[in-house]
């Protein structure tokens, strides 16, 4: 009798624990979708004023839209457009054959929206009788129709991910038959693949585990999700806290952002249960957020070089918001560091954009540099035989042929490039040196392209840094270096040459035209014509950015209308009409016959026009040729060097330097000697072999996953 009673108590205890376990998971999921926590208030005004793209296909963007509280008129429109007899909405093309922007997914998204309203006690639609039959009939149609998209992603990831939380929040209202059919939908997801795809699939399996209350399956799915929360040399989180997917390709704003959103979501769901993130996994997620994603937004806009292939409407703002919501999730998951996550939100969405995050950061596994100053922001993207520049897939990124060719985007206010992509001249991306012909741009494929060479990298020291690479593409080659010095941007190009007789240009910038354009050509002038070209232009100023020419060059200034369509860059917009808008373009023509295959100019962002008129560089160019690109500050404090071949460098106020191996170097004078920052852009060397003041140095370089990372040493004065 006593044994039977003990067994009864044990079984009862286990059942209670399981009930509490799944009850907490269900509660956390509902709280996430109901957004009743006060932390969301800081973003409500931003999300409610965000323009929604009705053709959005990006999962991250659509999930941001879902956080917007719908107004009554929107809810009434959704309800009035639904046919209770057929279980369908009248404005959805259920026969859609597209692989991107698949229309039937809207059906699932509306079910999720109505479920969120219906199950939220703080909603005016809570348990409303008019919504209940719509939900059940809409689910019945989906269960019976068994719609299949040509793109596997919708079937195995997109639809189960959207309906999974629906099944959880409606669990107590679903019949046994509906639960069984819900399981069939979720069974489309199996644990497999790599990176973010693996995480998505495991998350959908977890929805199933919670629905059927399978604790063992929940733990397996949880372990699979966290198995990708690791640093590796393969796809996923990288050693420098960038993110790769589809091979060695930077995917901050696409798969990486989905990864961050998914991991922060599930980590929040797991809070208060035995599945919660352990210290090791939490530390990696924290570093990915704060040392990776914190760097790539500016004033509520996501960096363009982080888009991946997703050049869609409004993604610069919607994806920045997605990061902000993940930061909010992290305040629940990692309360000890809540202030740092909230600083991201304040820095991007408070009136003064404070507190600042300043400095230069190079992601050595992704060939990308970020510079943040108090007044401006820029990123520069390169590629190499190690790193793929970009990709074109699902008929997206149809004009991104030159992305990763050393292109940069510089912004002061954040909106300089907002909405420009349809009418942008994609042959003239800022920072790119390339042929300019009338031939249409080639469309890349899944494998994109890689620059033919291994000299691509960056070296950093606080706010200063160098980004450099040897361009070798389409029969055009040359050395290109950008020096981030004293919150300015110095760009040098050398040894630019080709055997092909086609016009070659270097684009200094191309942005939306905003306000007047001024320039100095023997005197200060305002651009009145649409185009002005000259070999004696000293400087140009437009929209808070000054451009200072450092050597004779054939410079062209353009301020004229350009026309293009969203459908030209992403097929989902194939029915869009052309757009015509004014654009500012500044570029340099390289006349190889005159042997001018080089350039030297400086960008001075965030500068007042009156101050810029008297601007003078605080450095000099020591060398800009095939072997090296070198600049030195006039006060003798800093020497910056991109060394492509063995050479010797002499500069006033600095010791004589000799280099036996290539590399990137920054010498900064300190009280006791020289602080030397070094990196190996080839990621092949074990030691940097060089001499300073006649003394030989063999500096050990980072290896394994840290190849290409900056190392710093101190050299005492002789």
Automatic annotation (TrEMBL):
Question: According to the lineage, what is the superkingdom?
Answer: Bacteria
Q: Does the keyword Calcium apply?
A: yes
Which keywords accompany this UniProt record?
Calcium, Lyase, Signal
Residues forming the Polysaccharide lyase family 8 C-terminal domain are: 620-687
Q: Where is the signal peptide?
A: 1-18
Q: Where is the Polysaccharide lyase 8 N-terminal alpha-helical domain?
A: 71-345
> Pfam families this protein is in?
Lyase_8, Lyase_8_C, Lyase_8_N
Cross-referenced InterPro entries, in alphabetical order? Chondroitin_lyas (IPR008929), Gal_mutarotase_sf_dom (IPR011013), GH-type_carb-bd (IPR014718), Lyase_8 (IPR038970), Lyase_8-like_C (IPR011071), Lyase_8_alpha_N (IPR012970), Lyase_8_C (IPR004103), Lyase_8_central_dom (IPR003159)
Name any cofactors this protein relies on: Ca(2+)
Q: Where is the Polysaccharide lyase family 8 central domain?
A: 361-606
- Answer whether the UniProt record assigns the keyword Repeat to this protein: no
Give the multimer and partner information.
Monomer.
Its family?
Answer: Belongs to the polysaccharide lyase 8 family.
Q: What is the protein named?
A: Chondroitin AC lyase
Which source organism?
Pedobacter segetis
Organism taxonomic ancestry: Bacteria, Pseudomonadati, Bacteroidota, Sphingobacteriia, Sphingobacteriales
